[in-house]
């Protein structure tokens, strides 16, 4: 009797595993069992997981590919045999190969998104977009391709689909690019078009809280050589989230600047050490101390915000303030 019960439990366990596998294999069949190859724009743009050299060679001929866009980027210190194989396959076939480094876990910086748009607008077609699994970076790139073709936000969101391997609860961040674009449209009372999307990417897109307007409260008069000066700036949060300023030196957001001497030497400055969650649309005035500058002549100060340990806001889409400074010779 005990043996029969054990056999029954084993049989039930096998049936349960089979049922789960069948349930997963249905919506994720192309992700689990194939190369996750899908048409984004039929005959023009495709998306997939990382292809082998042989598989890529097959697709070049069957799909007529003229470009391959690798969304995994490239690192010179990595031994990436797959990348060498991919580039060699593309070169043998005489097609274009482009590498764009994107994150599978987070939204891209502004410059990366702009590079992707330019690539989709200019690369010879048919083209293939691929990342590692074809589920996340490929989903975002495919959504961008749809918006560039038709402006259809609903169709763009469909690229983040379970049958293409994207699981929203695992990675909820990437679709936020579409959310931010939709919010921008709603604020203007406009509908999506390819040209509006291009304009938004070029001049409006910045992820999370990484957008601010910086103004000099008083334009600096010529500075005396050898004397430090405190400059004051007005910072307005133009993003849709609060900017987390922190008084700690190595954490949070601070006012920062890149100072360049007449001879081209560079140094970084910091200021604005306050504990403040600056709400969207709110303004704060912050001080920045420019140290004593000994060399007379024209200096330049690029004033920005910096999220310590992450990025300067300018690298993520915000516009820094360029401020010329003249240092007068000591009398």
Brief overview, please?
This protein has nine helices and 16 strands.
| Poorly predicted regions | 13-26
Record field, number of beta strands: 16
CATH topology of the largest domain: Protein-Tyrosine Phosphatase, Chain A
Q: What proportion of the residues form beta strands (DSSP E)? A: 25-35%
Main sheet record: 6 strands, mixed
Number of helices: 9
Q: Tell me, briefly, the overall form.
A: elongated
**Global Rg:** 26 Å
CATH class of the largest domain: Alpha Beta
CATH architecture descriptor text of the largest domain? Alpha-Beta Complex
Order of helices and strands: HHEEHEHEHEHHHHEEEEEEEEEEE
Total count of domains: 2
Distance between the termini: 106 Å
CATH fourth-tier homologous superfamily of the largest domain: Protein tyrosine phosphatase superfamily
Helix content: 25-40%
> Taking all residues together, what is the mean pLDDT?
89
Category by helix and strand content? alpha/beta
Description:
The chain is an alpha/beta fold and 331 residues long. The protein folds into two domains: 24-203, Protein-Tyrosine Phosphatase, Chain A, CATH 3.90.190; 212-328, Immunoglobulin-like, CATH 2.60.40. The chain is 32% helix and 26% strand. The protein contains nine helices and 16 strands. It has helices at residues 2-25, 29-33, 53-62, 81-93, 110-122, 137-149, 153-157, 176-188, 194-203, and strands at residues 38-41, 45-48, 67-70, 96-99, 127-130, 212-216, 223-224, 229-237, 243-245, 253-260, 266-271, 276-278, 283-290, 297-307, 311-312, 321-328. Strands 7, 10, 11, 14, 15 and 16 form a six-stranded mixed sheet that branches. Strand 1 (38-41) and strand 2 (45-48) form a beta hairpin. Helix 3 packs parallel to helix 4. The longest helix has 24 residues, at 2-25. The chain is elongated, with a radius of gyration of 26 Å. Residues 13-26 have low confidence and may be disordered.
